Every structure is written in structure tokens, then in C-alpha cells.
Amino acid sequence: MNNKLYGNLIFELSKEGRKGYSLPKNNFGSYEIPSAMRRTEDAVLPECDELTVVRHYTNLSNNNFGVDTGFYPLGSCTMKYNPKINEEVAAMPQFQNLHPKQPAATVKGAQALVSLLEKSLCELTGLAHFTFKPYAGAHGELTGLMTIDNYHRSRGDMARKKVVVPDSAHGTNPASAAVCGLEIIEVKSLANGQVDFEDLQRIVAEQGQEIAAMMMTNPNTLGLFETRIPEIAKLIHACGGLMYYDGANLNPMLGACRPGDMGFDVMHINLHKTFSTPHGGGGPGSGPVGVREGLQQFFPFVSPYQGNYAVMMRAYAYILSLGREHVKEVGPLAVLNANYIKESLKDVYELPIDGLCCHEFVFDGLKDKSTGVTTMDVAKRLLDYGYHAPTIYFPLLFHESLMVEPTENESKETLDEFIGVMRKIAEEAKNDPDLVKSAPHNTPIGRVDDVLAAKHPVVTYRQLQNETM
């Protein structure tokens, strides 16, 4: 491969006067651009021929990593494979070319799909109604909490402004509650990773009249099934609060059990996770919110449109492809794959909470701490072997967290190869720790200063030029 085309910026491939196009003669006359809209100096743009541009960006695209190119065990994100039929359906011009301002009479097919998807999600979750307006999981959280707040306000119960959140929760839970104008009460976790029921009882006894809801993820952020959900739901309902289900970890529950049957009143679904839409790089997302019967009247106005419709189409195609009989296999297979990796590696990686996990699990770095090799080092070394790193340093309950989620799609052969590489890195850490600490070695860019990159990103070529002078 031509390293100059592969490793350089497009600006560095620029040659003055070189063009990759020719514009037709202007037949529209000359028009003055208002002075306030004109540049005071020429834009800094690269000058390249078409072939150089094509090769440059094709080489860059080949350096991208995704589910279609390799194993993506990103814990908490459920980066599952997106069947290509989903993309074909989402690209159908009959749907893709719809305009949000079209008359309702011209989009009956699209509306029918939304209704059918709602019916499917109600069956899968045990809830009665869904709104598809939220554009992401966090947007769904906010919508769900606003629904709960509206419910309490409708009853004149203005004092309920507190939300109970486990200390193991996703960071979006307290953030969404705060944006909604609610106060967060943190409930502790036990050594086994589950909610401390006695601590929750104390909170309810002291502040029950002010509790609007309790937010829970089940399985929780450690990938562990919360076994006392019925008791928790009974306790929260008895004090007048509602139960909110964070659907980020719905994947292992799919076809196995339903949040509505556990006692949850409101939930959001990360449709892009559990129902297979590629969402790396921050999008696209969809966070529909479901409620039990009677709460649908309290849905807030968060958008005039039906959310991210293409994600909804992919989700419905995915559900139809599986069918009633095969959707029941999703959760159990996700759980099986995660436990297989966990059990195969726990002799060389520290497992802080032993026992059966669900769709994901968390190691606390290498078991042999004497090597000085950190979770960050392990993640960087994995890149050399062609794997995307798992989620690292989350959840915050452990110092060297390494969270793995294989999803249900991966074959045993893929899992075995990943296990083999993880064991090899553990061996390298023991015999040649500097090799791991200085990784990656086989990528276009080596170890970078992550803190500097986050706090002082260089995002323009001109800025880069100035800083290298």
C-alpha cells in the first residue's frame, strides 16, 4: 500500500493548480453576493485530482472498524450485527423519500408500520403503549421522566421531585433526571453488585413522600440480574412512586422476560441497540418510550415528528426476520456467549463478582497486578490483533474495569479466537510488559495522549499548520 496516500492528510497530498473536475460555462449571468456573506480571504482547500481523492478516502474507510469487519465486544453498547435486509428495507424509496410535512393521507403505509412496530414492542415488553418521538436513548429517558412528572402533577402531588438511582447506573440516568428538574437520591449496591434493598428501605422510609420514581437497569450495569425486582417495585409503588426501566440492557431479556411483568411502569428502549441498527460514531439512535395502561395520556410533547423513522424500519424488519419463534433465542444466546468468555478468562483476568452474568460482564484488569499493565494497555494491545477494544474504565465501581459484551450473533469460533488473544495478552503482560504498555504497534497511529486529545483537539488543518511551525 502507498503509505503516502494512506497516512497523510488530504491537505498534504495537495498540489497547487491540480484539479479533479471542470465546471461548465456559466449560463446564468453574474450575481453579487452580499458583502456581509463574503470571505475576507480565500478558503484553505486542498487541490487534488480525482484519483488521489478516491484512493485517499477509500484507504481511510478501510481503516475504519465496525461490526461488519470484526468482533466488536463493546460492553453496555450492544454492538450487534445489522442484517443487510434491514438496510434494504430502510433504503426503500417509498419510505426514504417521505417528507415530514406530507399530508397524513399520503403516508398511511408509514403510519401502519409504526402501529405494527408498537404492537410488537408491547408484546416484547409487557407494556401497553409506546411513543416513538424520542431521537435517542437519553432523549427517551428524559421523555419517560417527563411522563412520570406529568403524572404526579396531574394528581396535584407536587412534592414528588426525587428519583432513586442505583450507584451502578448509567451516567445518563442522573443526568436525565437533573435535566427534568428532579433531584437524585443514590442507593448503594451490595458486594454482589445488586441494589442494597435495606438501603432502599431506609430511603423510602425517610423520603417516600417525595419519591417520583426509581430508575433501574435490569440486568444492571455489571451485567447482573437484579433478583429482588418484585420487592423493589412493591416498595416504590407503596410509597406512591413509579418504576422506570432503563432499556439499555434489554438485549438479554428479549424473549426471556418482560419489564412490564416485573412491575415497571415506564421504560425506554434503545431501539438502535437491541433491534440492530449500526450506531457507532454517535448515531443514528431511537429511544421509544413505553408505558403501562393509563399513563399514555401523560406523554410530553418532545417532537412533532415520529423520531428516527429509518431506525424504526430496521427494527421492524429485524423483528419480522426473527419471528415469534426465534426472537426467544436472542436473550439466552447473548447470555450464553458472555458467560462462555467470562468463564474462559477469569483465571487470568480479575473477576470481582463471580457467578452467572447476563449479556455482559466486568473484569477488574489483569489478575496479576505485579506486571503494571493496565486495562488501557490491554485495550490498546487488542488493536494490534484486529479487535475493537471492550468498554474500559466503566462502570466506575472498579479501578480497572474492562466490560465485555459479545451479543448473540457471534459464533463459537469467533469467541474462541478472542479468548485466545486475551490470554496471549495476559501472557505478554507477564513476560514482556513493555510490549503491551507501548501498544498499539500495527496501527497507522500509535499510542496517543488521550487527555490532550480530549482537552485540546486539533480539528482544522490551518491550526495544525500553525502548531507545527
From TrEMBL:
Gene3D superfamilies: 6.20.440.10, Aspartate Aminotransferase, domain 1 (3.90.1150.10), Type I PLP-dependent aspartate aminotransferase-like (Major domain) (3.40.640.10). One of its GO terms (molecular function) is pyridoxal phosphate binding. Keywords: Oxidoreductase, Pyridoxal phosphate. One of its GO terms (biological process) is glycine decarboxylation via glycine cleavage system. It catalyses: N(6)-[(R)-lipoyl]-L-lysyl-[glycine-cleavage complex H protein] + glycine + H(+) = N(6)-[(R)-S(8)-aminomethyldihydrolipoyl]-L-lysyl-[glycine-cleavage complex H protein] + CO2. Residues 333-431 form the Glycine dehydrogenase C-terminal domain. Its EC number is 1.4.4.2. The glycine cleavage system catalyzes the degradation of glycine. The P protein binds the alpha-amino group of glycine through its pyridoxal phosphate cofactor; CO(2) is released and the remaining methylamine moiety is then transferred to the lipoamide cofactor of the H protein. This is glycine dehydrogenase (aminomethyl-transferring). The lineage of its organism: Bacteria, Pseudomonadati, Bacteroidota, Bacteroidia, Bacteroidales.
